[in-house]
Write the structure tokens for this entry.
Amino acid sequence: MRGNEFTELKVFSCVANQQGFARAGEILSMSASSVSQTVRELEARVGIRLLNRTTRSVSLTEAGARLLERLTPVLHELDAMLEDLADLRDTPTGKIKLVTPRIAFTDLLEPLLGEFCAAYPEIVLDITVDDSIKDLVKGAFDIGIRLGEYLEDDVIAFPVSPPLRQIVLASPAYIALHGHPEHPRDLHLHRCINWRQHGTQGHYQWEFEKGTQKLAIEVKGPLTITDRSLAVSAALQGVGIMMWAEHRLQYLVDEGKLVPLLSDWCPTFPGFFAYYTKQRQMPLALRTLIDFMRANSKT
């Protein structure tokens, strides 16, 4: 197989799996037009159309589906062969693509970047900070961090933080003006600061638990944000009641600037976990990062 033929097949596989030229181009570091041209060259060489194209979507033809079915295990085997060769080297090297929520990055990864990069200068960390739930395979990520409650059954995971707790707070000025809720349902009578996850339309429901009672409350108020750290400033100004991670807000409680509410309804829950897909042969660079994260976890 000539080099350009291998490239064409790899590009076709990526387009088929990502269902689009632009998304494939991002993964392959190619422009969408170059990706499209490469697939056209493959179709011209084999003499049959492999993809159906519209202005909004890309789908496989019957021939394309048959090719992808046979091509996928071949590409996986080739990748495994190359990884085997890389693992023979003494120094971990290569790029690792990691996806993490913002709070996990700032709390868990950011403090370790200097130490890791100094210890392993041949490893390149490609970190995506995104609060939405990302699929490792579709995003071509090697490893991710997410809350334990969102882990899928088919991944390998280990804790990188202790259990967490979300608390409800308001400023003394807000409480003096509006009072404070005695029960989570009382939040419907208050002005609350809403949070909406990136890429979604609905608001995050505030979850409460006390004994056997569990509640999910959809609060309302004058402000909706996609970055919860911005809610802190708003709460300090008396805009409304907020909910966020206790460890991020405890210093404001200690200083008397925010007051905890409904504390007996705010239990702990499993914290952040690093997770990755099961694989027959793990690249040495990824194994090195996993070992480093385990050794430096805050559990």
